[in-house]
């Protein structure tokens, strides 16, 4: 992704492409509940009644409600019945969005690596051991440099092979492609993503948008739904908080973390110029916002406190935000976990984004894209999918897909 040079320009282009962003309607949503979780069906019906989603758009699966599932169980007990419904049900032809409810597994664990890939990595590790022994025995400076160079090369090769054979994913990210046979190793580029300049093997017609209504308890799920609907009626109130780590580099060439740090700066600028909220606070010091002050947060984006939520905000009803770190949606239910998605939902946020495993920073929606759509009146799921780089990968959107916090503002 050439985000370092082009995303800011693409933001402007996105404003001229709003005609391509359809407004999702209730009858275009199918809701997925799990018969083995007693609260799942009740919550699905509660949501569908609140949003006037036709009862015929309910898909019931029968699977273990644990947060993790094996790839084979995903294929058999989750993907297969959903695919059957979408292919054979006449009302399903108009479905553009799936909602996974409380009780539907969150993540797919990776099967063992195939034999050839495993053997290749094992051979590289043996060579790594041999080189390590040679390093300790060799005193010639030139030879040492050559050995160190080869060691670095092998380390990079091991990392590469492990990465391309990573088949772990969020259930929701795989369900985006439930109608299409696709390769499982690593990610696929999202054809909806407005910041991508690459060619696609997928078309937008191959992709369903997916959002999740889930949290530690059923009462929290109801709160997400109620807060989203009530906030739409009056508009989201509160302040926006953006937590960068470094000063804005401007148009300088930056890479990796620098790209996303700059994107946080630009998101703050976009929200401020939109005037949808009275106050936008941007912090560019290395330290995160810390507890102790009264911060009535309506919007938030920041990084990087890995799996350690910092209770620095009073989340306003309908608040939307996410924390850019690698483990923040690994669980929504595990007692004692401090991952950001789980804790933000428990503290009152209505919508958030996070990964179920290491996604690499470029998998996160660039904040400037996500918040630009949101403050310009797009709903939650469209704001997410038009800013989401990858599918068949690790990211999860939690919240009511129809939630539009700034409609008509």
The tally of strands reads 15
> Which consecutive residue ranges, at least 5 long each, have pLDDT under 50?
1-21
Q: What's the story with the biggest beta sheet?
A: 4 strands, parallel
Strand order of the largest sheet: 2-1-4-8
Helical segment tally?
Answer: 11
**Helix/sheet category:** alpha/beta
Strand content: 15-25%
What's the overall average pLDDT, rounded?
A: 87
In short:
This protein has 409 residues and is an alpha/beta fold. The chain is 38% helix and 16% strand.
What's the SSE blueprint?
Elements lengths: L2 H13 L13 E6 L3 H14 L6 E4 L6 E3 H18 L8 E5 L5 E3 L5 H23 L3 H24 L4 E2 H5 L12 E2 L19 E5 L4 H17 L4 E5 L13 H18 L5 E4 L12 E7 L11 E10 L16 H8 L4 E4 L11 H9 L4 H6 L4 E2 L3 E4 L11
Parallel strand pairs: 1-2, 1-4, 3-5, 4-8, 9-10, 9-11, 11-12
Antiparallel strand pairs: 5-6, 7-14, 13-15
Written overview of the protein:
This protein is an alpha/beta fold and 409 residues long. Among the domains are: 3-21 and 217-398; 115-164. Helix content is 38%, strand content 16%. The strands form 5 sheets. The chain has a 4-stranded parallel beta sheet, with helices on both faces. α2 (38-51) packs parallel to α7, α4 (115-137) packs antiparallel against α5 and α8 (257-274) runs parallel beside α10.
Descriptors:
409 residues, alpha/beta, 11 helices, 38% helix
